Amino acid sequence: MLALLVIIYISFISLGLPDSLLGSAWPVMYKDLSVSVSYAGILSMIVSLGTVVSSFLSARFIKRFGTGRVTLVSVSMTAIALIGFGLSHSFFLLLFLAIPLGLGAGSVDAALNNFVALHYEAKHMNWLHSFWGVGVTTGPVIMSFWLAKNNNWNMGYITIGIIQSVLVVVLIISLPLWNNSPIEKKRTQNHGNKGEDIKALSLSQILKIPKSKMALLAFFSYCSLELTTGLWASSYAVNNYGVLSEIAAFWTSVYYLGITIGRFFSGFMSIRFSNKQLIKIGLSIIFVGITLIILPLPVWKIPIGLSFIGLGCAPIYPSMLHQTPRIFGKELSQSMMGVQMAFAYSGSTFTPLLFGLIAEYINISLFPAFLLILAFILLFTTEIVNGKIIFDE
């Protein structure tokens, strides 16, 4: 299982690589494509909606085809879409290519998270999401390299697409490793490829499961908190405190660095602390960070507060994912994982837009108060979900 774990880690780096490309390249792309700067929101929305849809359907695909094949097809879709982005000079073609880009991301995310939750210890889940941070940090570096060469954003996308294509080859070679894993053997045992051990439930069936509503709200609120912080922290610093935009952007990178480094160390902490304890520790650190930003202190409170919020966010999401089969049982975990991911992506898609409306029509100074509300919702929901573990390993 060690070789398979390495492949999963590499897959999560590749999952993060495309996530920050559009934001990095768009200042050049929209001019080349002769469209409005606001059109980035349309592309982002299509990708997000595709991700939500494929997350909802992931349990059905994995039940039928298995984790390895779903991962292979999903990464292949993203590779084709990214290379297509690089070869395209039409915004309308990008709209079409955004569909497989989103669909591929959602399925592989839900598949790999559930696989790790079932097969590996909590430390590996934390390190897995730390590797996603490596990918999301590396993507802009590759793009900036090509932008420095005559604003060649096309080659930036093609380069990432080629990296994904190499991973596709690795996944093809590694299919026997997936098929020999315990969960895949059980999936096919005595049932051909039907995967009777995995229950693919509809949303209405999932909502009837005890604690499922609170779990889904927890995922929605967590990703709402993480993405709203990342998107609006810079604007809050610039507009409320007159900070230079390049300094404010650096402060945002400090926030994401806190998440990445925090998840690396959370892997070691998970050896000593349970998932429930890590979630509580993370929330406590988040409240410290938000409180720092709210207090009437000099402007240095913002980068310090953001670093605390990032460190606090680090263990929460992986711990929530790792808890899924322990709370809802192994048979229901894939269905729950897919819907949880869909709610998580919904939170990261729509809540930052909601705060954008608040910032425009009311006041951006409400930013820390908005984060505080999300943090309290997350605290409330996780306390209910983790109040009693129904299924043990």
Give an account of the 3D structure:
- By secondary structure, the chain is an all-alpha fold.
- It has two domains: 2-194, MFS general substrate transporter like domains (Growth Hormone, Chain: A); 204-385, Up-down Bundle (Growth Hormone, Chain: A), CATH 1.20.1250.20.
- It contains 16 helices and no strands.
- α6 crosses α14.
- The longest helix is centred in the last third of the chain and has 32 residues, at 330-361.
- The model is unreliable at 192-196 and 389-393 (pLDDT under 50).
Q: What is the fold's blueprint, element by element?
A:
Blueprint: H1 2-16, H2 21-33, H3 40-65, H4 67-87, H5 91-119, H6 122-147, H7 153-173, H8 175-179, H9 182-188, H10 203-206, H11 212-241, H12 245-272, H13 275-294, H14 301-328, H15 330-361, H16 367-385
Helix pairs in contact: 1-5, 1-6, 1-7, 2-6, 3-4, 3-5, 3-15, 4-5, 4-7, 5-14, 5-15, 6-7, 6-12, 6-14, 11-12, 11-14, 11-15, 11-16, 12-14, 13-14, 13-16, 14-15
